[in-house]
Amino acid sequence: MASLLLRNLFFTILQPGTAAVLIPWLLLRGTGTPLVPDNWNALHFIGLLLAIGGLTIMMICIWRFPSEGQGTISPVDPTRKLVTGGLYRYSRNPIYVGVTILLLGEAIYFWSWRLVVYAVLLFIGFHIWVLFHEEPRLRRVFGAEYDEYSARVHRWI
């Protein structure tokens, strides 16, 4: 279990960490956008709450991979069991939903059109990845179990 947790930590930093932290930082770098604004307003609080909510969704779901799926979030080190508990009862892809909510929260907090465009493009990329890679792989690996799961749980929300 310790090995799975360490591998998940590594892949969490590498994959969603890059998408939700590194790339937004690179997009905002040089724009003069402060990390902590001088004058807080309602949009800062809304953005912060969305970002925290998205991060919470993401982390709760990532925990399911070693605890329930006996694997990691990475396609190079996938789960051995189909993850269907927790938030996976409501969405087949809650990590992607969480990352998107986190990014939209960042966009609102920093009032950045660049982050809005990035969040939309990333979500389109998630959708394409899910349709052409993840779902076919899950159908191959888990067969009827995945077909039954996808029949009762929506792809997104």
Question: What does this protein structure show overall?
Answer:
The protein is an all-alpha fold and 157 residues long. It has one domain (2-24, 43-152). Helix content is 69%, strand content 0%. The chain contains 6 helices and no strands. It has helices at residues 2-14, 16-28, 42-67, 94-110, 113-142, 144-152. The radius of gyration is 17 Å and the shape is elongated. It starts with a helix and ends in a 5-residue tail after the last helix.
Uncertain residue segments: none
End-to-end separation: 30 Å
Rg estimate, integer Å: 17 Å
Largest sheet: none
Query: Total helix count?
Result: 6
The chain-level structural class is mainly alpha
Order of helices and strands: HHHHHH
Can you give the mean pLDDT?
A: 94
Could you state the oligomeric state of the chains shown? single chain
Number of strands: 0
Shape: elongated
Tally of discrete structural domains: 1
Helical proportion? 55-70%
Topology, pairings included?
Layout: H1 2-14, H2 16-28, H3 42-67, H4 94-110, H5 113-142, H6 144-152
Helix pairs in contact: 1-3, 2-4, 2-5, 3-4, 4-5
Q: Short summary of the structure?
A:
Helix content is 69%, strand content 0%. It is an all-alpha fold and 157 residues long.
